[in-house]
Amino acid sequence: MTETDLLQKRKTQVLAAVFGVSLVVGGLLAAQHADLFANPAAVPAAMESIRGSGLNLAYQFAVLLLCFAWLEMDSRQLGIRRPWWLNLGVVFLTSLFVPYYLYKTRAPGQRGGAVLAYFGVLCGSVFAMLAGMLLAASFFAAPPPGKGI
Length: 149
Description:
It is built from 6 helices and no strands. The protein is mostly helical and 149 residues long. It is elongated and about 60 Å long.
């Protein structure tokens, strides 16, 4: 197996890890806020508590580390060096600087596909989180009030 093949395999594993982390965090969020499914009026309060929670910070940090791991492997695979300002931009404005990196490092016919693939990964991680929430809700959610067996 060549180094390029190995890097491509590891990049795929990193993407799978992003989906896995999103799935698990979605499940943990649903378990922590099981009442959301029975009481939709509690959504604003739950969102406020999630924003500053340690779980949210850990999720953001894990995804950022995975993003940098993928970028490092991609840069090595392409034989380029990312400037320091691009790394800083990825930390503060990931959704702007990663597509910029993809656009600048791909051949003219491959740029659009690479940027669309990035946004596909973002959407996929949201769906993975929702799947984790639904899976966890099936175990932790309380039955609706007034429904007897």
